[in-house]
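Hi both,

Apologies for the delay on this - the queue was longer than expected. I finally got the pyridoxal-5'-phosphate-bound model through. Below you'll find the protein sequence and the ligand SMILES exactly as submitted, and right after that the structure tokens for the full complex including the ligand.
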Amino acid sequence: MVKRVSDNSERRLKGLARRHGTPLVAISRSGLMRQLERFHQALLRVEPFYAVKANAHPDVLKTFVAAGACFDVASVAEARAVLAAGAKPARCIFANTIKPVAAIAEARKLGVDLMTFDSEYELDKIADRAPGSRVIVRIKVPNVGSIVELSLKFGTEPADALALLIKAHKMGLVPAGVSFHVGSQCTRIENYLQALEMAAIIIRDSRLKQLPLEILDIGGGFPIRHFDDEEDPFDGAAQTIAQEIDRLFDANVRVIAEPGRFLVGPAATLILRVIGKAIRENKHWYYLDDGVYGALSGQIFDHAKYQFKVTRKGRRQLSTLAGPTCDSLDIVATGEDLPELELGDIVYVENIGAYSVATATCFNGVPPAKVVMVP
Ligand SMILES: Cc1ncc(COP(=O)(O)O)c(C=O)c1O
């Protein structure tokens, strides 16, 4: 769906495009801070560990470091990036349940000693390369209806979690907690509710076994709005999650989360220009200077759908938008209601800060979009 913009933001976008060129991703610092603040306000008891994979731009990391956030890193490269941005290793969790042995050793050398796991094999690796680490068991939970499914590949059966934690203890590791991920862009609150119940049972049982778990990690998945006519799905969901946390977990449990999309998604806008135009089968096709191999890669990897907006006014007709590469996969929208666009016109997408530039390639020699920070 395409909408025209207000004159103010139209002028601002055109100015940014003129100054920096296109394709351009403009990340708003105040937008990042607003999302972090919304998270804190809605989930008072939950400490956010920003999931760096969503967008690892150094200025995003620095903004969150300055705001006192913690970090979820999925690799040594991400750990180095957050430490370079000024974070302390004690504020990081290595939240990838399957890690190369060298990465485990290196993370430990960097001072990151809190890690997730979901199998005995991983415990062997951690005990060998990072003895004494604090470990969090990730359980498989329902991901029903979430846009990105994350429990197919990861998570032990909840019934096996306690046995794994006991094994960790026997191996000299510190059983620290239980984690889950309900799937990314999760709008089905039942996923969280069921996962919280499962985690509560594991924490209760760990106390019975004299191995009290200190941490509940509720993962990521917090949803954002992509289209102007949708209701924002976060606040209602967060209120219910907060209530359930209070009902199920006493104050001895430290609750953390790994939000990625929610903290960066709404803070960025992608600005593109029309670089080519054709009429095919009686329909206008507009070719843009970035596509699914670039900052719109979320359409493939993140299963994302975006709202394309234009600055030009005029009578609308059904049109197609395509990216700049030679691949027919690189068609970004086929049913857009657009005025007739001209070469050089601006097309833009808001709410595109997560899983966009993070998964961009240089296919066809098209360089990734430039990223700038704006106030
Ligand atoms: C382990 C883990 N934590 C956190 C996240 C971030 O999820 P989201 O961006 O949905 O908040 C992901 C996403 O893939 C993940 O795999």
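Main takeaway for now: Residues 51, 54, 72, 95, 150, 181, 184, 219-222, 258-262, 354 surround pyridoxal-5'-phosphate (CB under 6 Å).

I'll put the files on the shared drive as well.

H.
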